[in-house]
Write a structure and sequence with these properties.
The structure is a single chain. The chain is mainly beta. It has a domain of 69 residues. Helices cover 4% and strands 34% of the residues. It contains one helix and six strands. It has a six-stranded antiparallel β-sheet with strand order 1-6-2-3-4-5, with no helix packed on it. Strand 4 and strand 5 form a beta hairpin. The two termini are 17 Å apart. The N terminus is likely disordered.
Length: 99
């Protein structure tokens, strides 16, 4: 079975960061700037959540993956979240679980 991948080239597909969930839900984030982007572009995409360490009251910050180009490994990202998308749903069938 051939896999088809869709790449959104339009920034219109991203939702405003002000509307993102702030309850620890993992989402896709569009990140502006920073020294540790996952991609070597001015805008990069990462996975992250708000208030990861103790909830939004204890940790009112975004936490997302970055890449240390110097050490060649994942790290906590920096930069500014500028937009978001929900993670795509995954079914048991897509994972090869069940029938």
């Amino acid at each position: 079975m051939e896999q088809k991948y869709v790449r959104h080239s339009s920034l219109d597909a991203w939702l405003p960061i002000a509307t993102a969930p702030r309850d620890g839900t993992s989402i896709l984030l569009l990140i502006e700037g920073g020294e540790l982007p996952l991609q070597d572009d001015s805008l990069s995409v990462s996975i992250g959540a708000y208030g990861v360490h103790g909830g939004p009251e204890e940790d009112p910050t975004w936490d997302f993956a970055g890449w240390s180009w110097h050490q060649d490994c994942y790290c906590r990202g920096d930069g500014k979240p500028a937009g978001w998308m929900p993670l795509p749903p995954v079914t048991a069938g897509q994972l090869g679980i069940g029938s």
